[in-house]
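worker-3 :: picked N-acetyltransferase domain-containing protein
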Amino acid sequence: MSLSVQLRPVQPDDEEQLAQIYASTRQQELAVTGWPQAQIDVFLRQQFTAQQRHYRTYYPDARHDLLLLEQAVIGRLYVERTSQRLHVIDISLLPDWRGRGIGGQLLAQLLAEADSRAQVTSIHVERHNPALRLYQRLGFQLCEDKGIYLMLERQPRG
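worker-3 :: tokens ->
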């Protein structure tokens, strides 16, 4: 099933939604800490702020989009495009939208774009992220082991 997901450039007033998307990707991991929810919330806000600062510093020309389905925000997609590569900085879906093929659909579109330009596609992924299996199915291969993160690349096809 193909869903018609729309991309909308992130606006300054989207920060709270972006923070919620980020927090949704870390809830399961932090649930085992035993921390009170207030402490988890503070930690998640600090981590979100640090992540956003990192992305702006190291990927200043990247495109940051919200993912919309029938005007409802369902996730985010950050992509850096250079003359040599298409780098997926972040692709995150809210929990209710995971496992429905949306991430695979978006990645297939990005891979087709990279293939049409004969570009390598790259992505960082946490070693234990369930999406790693999807990336491998799509042809991504380990390029560099960075400890907690893996750098994956997919060579252009065509």
